[in-house]
Amino acid sequence: MKNYIYAIILMAATFSYAQETEDATAKWSGSRPDGHAPISVMGDHTHGKGEIMFSYRFMYMNMEDVNRGSENTSFADALTQYMVTPTRMPMQMHMLGAMYAPSDKITLMVMANYLTSEMDHLTRMGGTFTTEASGFGDTKVAAIYKFFNKDKQQLHAQVGVSIPTGSIDEQDAIPASAPNEVILPYPMQIGSGTFDGELALTYLKQWNKWSFGTQARTTLRFGTNDNDYRLGNRYSLNNWTAFTATKWLSFSGRVELGAIDRIEGANPALNPMMVITADTQNSGMTYANAGLGFNLYAFKGSLKNLRFGFEAALPLFQNMNGIQLRTKETLTFGLQYAFK
Ligand SMILES: [Cu+2]
């Protein structure tokens, strides 16, 4: 009996050793559940020549309560300085994406999104009201260039442009204006109003069961939009690791560090004394967030190369300029389908 168990252990050990050595010189592979990053990460992978991928993502992000700097503060504090404070802002985003690789080195990407935002408010007089905005956001086109894929590592760079197809003229009625509509503050606008550059550099590494990825990303904005302002540049460093539980399931953990610059200029139609979101002093921050998620991957059968990903993320810290709504939970779901 004992010998029998030893034999099984020896066989298992030999088998896993053989797998390890066989993979040692192999390429980084997308054909495993953790072959894609956590679903909240964009531009994390490339495709082989002639491959096409369609994706749909849904993101829910909630903001609630206010921070002054890095500390949670009261609405009463916000209302000493402003007539109105937001109390909550849930946001939903539908994202449709397509990828196509004209060669093994280059993958092209396009992404469109539809956004719905609501903002609940509290006035100095104790009144409450909600504004709403929705519409198609800015459209992103990008090219990813793969520098190398060897020894289970990949390095690729993304160069892209965000085209200002999203509205920056969203209006809604507020108690002071009703029944007329007035322009909504910066966070409620759907688009940036400027052509923005998006650059990213991604490094990926795989082991037998584990994988790791890191991505540096920046959104650089130039000029000013038709409403005399431009949103702040964005910088982020995203790191993730994933564990492949089975051929079709992996679990991931992710930590992002980021910074958003202050808004430059100001929309003259907004009164910065009115509400904290209309004052550009209350824009820009440094932050960190962490997410846990899983990827499902159909590795064979009629649904081969269909993926489903989920991630839930929470902020670790957020240090705001001035006084701003706090980010709470972010949930991301996504379906991806690749074919040749
Ligand atoms: Cu893809």
| Attached small molecules | copper (II) ion
CATH topology: Lipocalin
Strand content: over 45%
Overall shape: elongated
Q: What's the quaternary structure here?
A: single chain
CATH architecture name: Beta Barrel
Mean pLDDT: 92
For the sheet with most strands, the description reads:
12 strands, antiparallel, barrel
Low-confidence parts: 8-22
Distance between the termini: 51 Å
Let me know the CATH homologous superfamily.
Answer: Autotransporter beta-domain
* Run of helices and strands: HEEHEEEEEEEEEEEEEEEE
Residues in helices, as a percent range:
under 10%
Describe what you observe in this structure.
- The protein has 340 residues and is mostly beta strands.
- The protein has one domain: Lipocalin.
- It is 9% helix and 56% strand.
- It has two helices and 18 strands.
- A twelve-stranded antiparallel β-barrel has the order 1-3-4-6-7-10-11-13-14-16-17-18. A two-stranded antiparallel sheet has the order 8-9.
- A hairpin with a 5-residue loop joins strand 3 and strand 4 (106-123).
- Bound molecules: copper (II) ion.
- Copper (II) ion binds next to loops.
